[in-house]
Amino acid sequence: MEFLADSLTTSLLYAVIAAVVSGVLFGFAGFGAGLIMSPLFAVIFSPTDAIAIVTLTSTTAVVLLWPQIKRRVQIREALPVALCGALTIPFGTYILLAIDAELMRRGIGGVVLFFALIMLTGWTYRGPRGSIAGGLTGLASGVVAGSAATSGPIYSLYLLSAPVEAAVTRANILFVSTIFPISTIVSMAAQGAIGSQTLVRFALILLPYALGIWVGARIFTRSSDQLYRRVALWFIFAVGLFVVVI
Prior knowledge:
The chain has helices spanning 2-7, 10-29, 33-44, 47-72, 75-98, 101-120, 131-148, 152-160, 166-190, 196-222, 226-245. The protein is mainly alpha-helical. The radius of gyration is 17 Å and the shape is globular. The model has no long low-confidence stretch (mean pLDDT 79).
């Protein structure tokens, strides 16, 4: 009960608002939740708590969306990314725990800014595809996932470039988003980075986040995504800039 009382603060209200917005974005586009939650939660709580909570909520998200994922996912395309990423996530977690919290918070904001700018330019990966390219993408994504929980743009940029329909691309991205959080949770728990108060905060944020995902998934089935994605990316950019400069 003491942990619950300590968690019910104004900061938690801000975290709930960020979780709802992140859930809508993730339910719609299949990416972007960590880009909003990670830097904001790093300010509201701490970088370690932020990554733990984002990772736990990401796991919940893919459970809610799994029926959509399994009907569309291309295992040959998504599996090399997911498995190779799982190998380097522990290294990313080590970086998170070893670096000064203030430096890590600004680092997370910088990563978000960098990827938001890339995605806003409309750049698309046009290189080779296959197990090697997917595996290298996964290795890089795993380091960022473990240290900043913002690896989505790395593997999303790769998977978005595949010549398939949007629903299949979204399923491939969400499949990778299934493996990464599970691996990150295992790595953080093994290194003692998930405490009782972290779990309480996650529990309090979970329902608003799930509601946001439901709304976002409904939007995906009813509308064109071009304008929405553009607005979402500008919002993500603004979040990253805010975290870097404050």
